[in-house]
């Protein structure tokens, strides 16, 4: 009769005499991605083999403000800020039967001379929370004389929870040289995305890329323009077993 050598680090003989893989030794087996903004539920029973999870949460980016300068004048807006990020590794035994999952929505674009909206926080239960970025401001008024506006600070890591937390990127400031020359600010970057582009031509705010990044600022030389929505957040759960 042939004999077989079995690595005891990965296999064991069960009570019924069958050779089985030791629970938790297969490594990464699946992942769950929550993309849609809003509330979701993670159910541990859907993964009976689960032994460990790696959770990543990305807060949403801030929207940028709208601008509406008078004829022959200029308004330049800064971008929206990037959302914060957090992650944590946990044993499956420390999870509840269900865990609430929230994906933050990107901050809304401002219209006319309205400010951009703040991005929403993303979270997995209470163990991983990442705040959203603030929206773009509307401090600059219509005019032709040189003016500058500061960018918006990125979402703070201190407002989140997790094994590791990182703040979002600040947005770029905006400036005006005269009634026909100015520059809107770039959106703030995030761990999972890049902020919307800065612009010198008249138009709506720049579209952010990826997840959690802020919108680029808008620029008006006498026409009403809108800001841009910030990028939505994201939650990823990596499943090990």
From TrEMBL:
Residues 49-237 form the Glycine-rich domain. Residues 185-224 are annotated as: Disordered. It holds the Pfam family Gly_rich_2. It comes from the Bacteria. Residues 185-196, 203-219 have a biased composition (Gly residues). This is Glycine-rich domain-containing protein. It comes from Streptomyces taklimakanensis. The lineage of its organism: Bacteria, Bacillati, Actinomycetota, Actinomycetes, Kitasatosporales.
């Amino acid at each position: 009769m042939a004999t077989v050598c079995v690595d005891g680090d990965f296999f064991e003989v069960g009570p019924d005499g069958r050779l089985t893989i030791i629970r938790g030794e297969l490594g990464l087996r699946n992942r769950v991605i929550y993309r849609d903004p809003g509330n979701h539920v993670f159910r541990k029973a859907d993964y009976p083999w689960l032994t460990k999870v790696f959770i990543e949460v990305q807060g949403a980016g801030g929207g940028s403000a709208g601008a509406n300068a008078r004829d022959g004048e200029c308004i330049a807006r800064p971008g929206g800020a990037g959302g914060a990020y957090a992650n944590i590794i946990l044993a499956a035994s420390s999870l509840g039967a269900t865990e609430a999952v929230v994906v933050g929505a990107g901050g809304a674009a401002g219209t006319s001379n309205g400010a951009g909206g703040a991005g929403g926080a993303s979270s997995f239960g209470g163990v991983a929370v990442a705040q959203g970025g603030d929206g773009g401001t509307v401090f600059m008024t219509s005019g032709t004389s040189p003016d500058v506006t500061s960018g918006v600070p990125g979402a703070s890591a201190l407002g989140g929870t997790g094994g590791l937390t990182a703040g979002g990127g600040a947005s770029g400031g905006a400036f005006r040289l005269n009634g026909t020359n100015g520059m809107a600010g770039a959106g703030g970057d995030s761990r999972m995305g890049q902020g919307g582009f800065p612009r010198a031509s008249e138009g709506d705010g720049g579209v952010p890329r990826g997840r959690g990044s802020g919108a680029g600022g808008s620029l008006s030389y006498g026409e009403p323009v809108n800001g841009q929505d910030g990028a939505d957040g994201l939650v990823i759960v990596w499943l090990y077993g």
